[in-house]
Amino acid sequence: MNPAIQTRDLSFAYQDRLVLHAVSLSVDRGEMIGILGPNGSGKTTMLKIFSAVLHGQGAVKINDRDIETYGRRDLSKLFAVVAQESRMNFPYTVAEVVLMGRASYHSAFALEGKKDLEIARASMELTDCLLFANRYLHELSGGEKQRVMIARALAQEPEILLLDEPSAFLDLKHQVQVFELLRRLNRDRGLTIVAALHDLNLASLFFPRLVVLRDGKIYRDGSPKEVLTEKTIEEVYGIRVRIEQDPFSEKPQLFICPSL
Amino acid sequence: MKHFQRLITLHLLTASLFVLCNSAFFAHAASAPRSQRIVSLAPSVTETLFALGFGNRVVGVTTYCDYPAEARKLPKIGGFMNPSLEAVAAKRPDFVIGVSSATDPVKAREMERLGLKVTLISLASVNDILSSIKSIARLLGSPEAGEKLVDKISLQFDEIKKRVASAPRRTTLLAVGLRPLVVVGGKNFINELIFLAGGENIAGNADQPWLNLPDEYVVAKAPQVIIEAGMGSERGDSAKHWGDLKSIPAVREHRVYAYQSDKILRPGPRIGEGLEEIARLVHPECFAEAKRGVNKGKGCEGPRP
Amino acid sequence: MKVLDRRKMIFVNGVLLALLTLSMVACTLLGPVHLDLSRALRDLSFANPDAEILFRARLPRVLLGVAIGGGMAACGVVLQALLGNPLACPQMLGVSGGASLGGILGLILFPNWLLPIAGGLLGEISWVPLAAFLGALCSMTLVYRFSLFHGRLHPYHLLLSGVIFNSFIAAVIMFLNSIIDFYQAQGLLFWLMGSLSTRAYLTVAFIWAYISFGFLWLWAKGLSLNLITLGEEAAMQLGVETGALQRQIFIASSLMIGAMVSVSGMIGFIGLMIPHVMRLIIGSDHRLLLPASFLAGGIFLCWADTLARVLLAPAELPVGIITAFFGGPFFLFLLYREGRKALTL
Predict the structure, then answer these.
(1) From CA A16, how far away is CA A37, in angstroms rounded?
(2) Chain A residues close to C86, C-beta within 8 Å
(3) Rounded CA gap, B207 and C323, in Å?
(4) Which subunits sit against A, judged by 3+ Cβ pairs under 8 A?
């Protein structure tokens, strides 16, 4: 199995504040990993380092090659990132935004061709936003925008999909839809998926491997059954929970024990 | 003997008393400056004051007041558009004289509120200039000085008018700046001087006293004389500036003059001399001692050159 | 799916190019002075007043207006993308302030110095626009230095330092205004409000070469500009070297703006308004927005200059007054009609 992403002793500091501390992680091709951890544990930073937005200390290898040896355009054909929030200052239509994902596939001087349009349309269909292809992005709701961003990421035809809390603004129906889509992409296309997640139950249901970060270090790395224990949750998140195995999915589910 | 001595002493006493009283009276008149301190807020006013003989009463002038030479040594009270309120007040003037179109009216009101007597004269036209000379003279108690100066200037005017009377009118452009092109317009005393000098200002129909002119207008109006009277005008520069517009008669016939002169630009007592300078440029042939060999030999009365 | 395709590119640019050509012809024929075209063309020798009005007085102005209007509009487009701010305009970079200050100092200190070109063979140019360009370079360098952090130009810092720089320069200019004399004050107005008055084809050719080069270079970056409006990180993740792009755009647009202001003074409003107008009509894709804005800017300034010459004839108004005066209400009108559906950001 070729490792898609491999880090060894990765560290990163924001102005003297250590955010990641000697993180060594290996993600195989075709794996689907959920990164868990409270705010500030380094989830977003790690994703940014994977997509070469930030540069940390320590080795990061993509497909067995050091990440620094890749040009940005090449990286954008390997990785696609769906950020938590998207802000646009100028009016673009949904179709235009999704087509921007094709930027690395044609020269700067050429306009998008038939193939680009086809891929864009297919991506929008997958994420259920073809209906508002000609509407302006800023007219859409948060959830609809998120789906457009996923469509754009898919239009990049990446090998690896990085998502930062993809379900943050979605309603329940669309949360499930997105995760089901991710699972389908992982299964049918072999897409490697690394997602930072905050909903532990959904993470448990959909992601076969979970990595828990605490204070910039990897605390636990394994299957949901191995990782989601009451002790782990209490140590990492600081709350008391009750874990029970869901009979249908055979995955652990959390039940919160509020103090009041 | 004692009677005679007493008579002499009485006469001497009376005489000296008489002399003393009279000299005190004359001394009072001669040292009137002590009670007539004047501050001038404009170079043209300064020139007028000196020309009227009140130079020794002037206690404050602007930084631009450079004529006559004595004015340069006088204490300065600020600039032309922005005199300093404190500096003016500190001079304790009896009269403050400014120009209505230039002096900041807010400052003028402030000065009045401080108890100073502020007079703003209008210098918009030749008539205004002459009548303000008279009114300044009246204000300062010597109306005859005003009349004399105005008569002198009027004589200068008449002299020039006579000289150019028979010459045909020449279209003229008088510029004070080249980049951008700023010229004398309609409501401007210089416009009148041009007319009196036997010229016709091509921008004279404009209402503004100064205006930016587009080049195409100058070409269309085809002036026969172009005078550049602005600061720093150099002969070489002006010839190059107009050189490519050969359809303009002034360019073709080399009647483009760079002639920087305060006499032309300042609405003061030297406008008579300014008029002569303009006339010499517009109609050089009317002056016996024609300069630069232009039209030598051709009479003042003649067909249009 | 409505996206930018070749047909739209050709159509929009074709229409604008046609309008531009018509405008250039019209503006050369219009003016405060009557021009007899047949007489002008009949006798192209020297000393034909109609030919001189057409070819020496009006044509250079029209050509310069197209270049500067186009250049300002194009710079406005890229600056709005670079700073991520729809209110960004060329004046905000501080470059134009530096150029104005340099020009004013040149006007006060050495208004009559001339520099011979090619040993005098190609004529001479005044030192004043050179001083203005030097001023532009100085302020560009300063603003750049103040905004560069870790090799990246942060839009926030760029905006701030540019605005503060402009305020400081405005204060210096006002100070100069209070100590210069009446005749120099007219020259100062030129720098602050702009004028296209020129007869020098050398200047026009130089500006055309300069602006064309800069514009073509910026046009090539059109796709990257689209991506950078998604945000710096998203652009990086889509393959754009944002650090390098920001630096290059800043320098390219600063040099263009510096050159334009050095020649014509500060003509405002075009860089702010034209990009928005074109966005409302043709959308935000920079690959079309840049050339369309360039052409539209040229058309606009052409007509603005004609109005400047005609409105208060024979006097000539500073063209910056026209661009603000007529540009503003027109833009508001367009915003009211079309903007509600597209600009509710």
Answers:
(1) 21
(2) 89-90
(3) 24
(4) C
**Burial, C218: exposed, middle or buried (Cβ in 10 Å; 0-12, 13-18, 19+)?**
buried
Phi, psi of B227 (to 5 degrees): -115, 130
B266 → chain C, closest CA residue: C182
* Chain B contact partners (≥3 CB pairs within 8 A): C
* CA pair distance C92, C70, nearest whole angstrom: 18
How many Cβ atoms from other residues are within 10 Å of residue C328's Cβ? 13
**3+ Cβ–Cβ pairs closer than 8 Å linking B and A:** no
Q: Identify from A67, A89, A112, A135 which residue to disrupt to test chain C contact, counting C C-beta atoms within 10 A and taking the largest count.
A: A89
Q: Do C315 and B213 touch (CB under 8 A)?
A: yes
pTM of the model: 0.86
Name the DSSP class of A136: B
Q: Say whether residue C199 is in contact with chain B using an 8 A CB cutoff.
A: yes
Question: Which residues, in sequence order, are CB contacts of B288 under 8 Å at separation 6+?
Answer: none
Facing C241 at nearest CB: one of A48, A72, A139? A72
Residues of B in contact with C317 (CB under 8 A): 212
Q: How far from the centroid of its chain's Cα atoms is residue B168's Cα?
A: 27
The Cα angle at residue C327 between residues C323 and C330, in degrees rounded to 5: 160
Q: From CA B289, how far away is CA B283, in angstroms rounded?
A: 12
- pLDDT tens string for chain C (345 positions)? 778 888 999 999 999 999 999 999 999 999 888 888 887 777 776 678 888 888 888 999 999 999 999 999 999 999 999 888 877 888 888 888 899 999 888 888 887 777 777 766 666 677 888 889 999 999 888 888 888 877 677 788 888 888 888 899 989 998 888 777 776 777 788 888 888 988 888 889 999 999 999 999 999 999 999 999 988 889 999 989 998 999 899 999 999 999 999 999 889 889 989 998 899 889 899 999 999 999 999 999 999 999 999 998 888 999 999 998 877 787 787 677 765 555 444
Residue A109 has a CB neighbour count (10 Å cut-off) of: 10
> Alpha-carbon distance A170 to A147, whole Å?
9
Q: Partners of B40 in the beta sheet?
A: B97
| DSSP conformation letters of A28-54 | ETT-EEEEE--TTSSHHHHHHHHTTSS
CA gap B109, B2 in Å, rounded: 69
On whether the CB atoms of residues B220 and B207 are closer than 8 A, the answer is no
Task: Measure the CA–CA gap between B265 and B252, rounded to whole angstroms.
Answer: 26
Nearest CA-CA partner of C308 in C298, C300, C319: C319
Yes or no: say if A192 and A159 are a contact pair by the CB < 8 Å rule. yes
Nearest residue in C to B265, CA atom: C183
**Do you know the residue count of chain A?**
260
Q: How distant is the alpha carbon of residue B179 from its chain centre?
A: 26
Q: Which of C186, C188, C201, C267 should we substitute to test contact with B (largest number of B Cβ atoms within 10 Å)?
A: C186
Instruction: Decide if C239 and A99 are in contact by the 8 Å CB cutoff.
Output: no
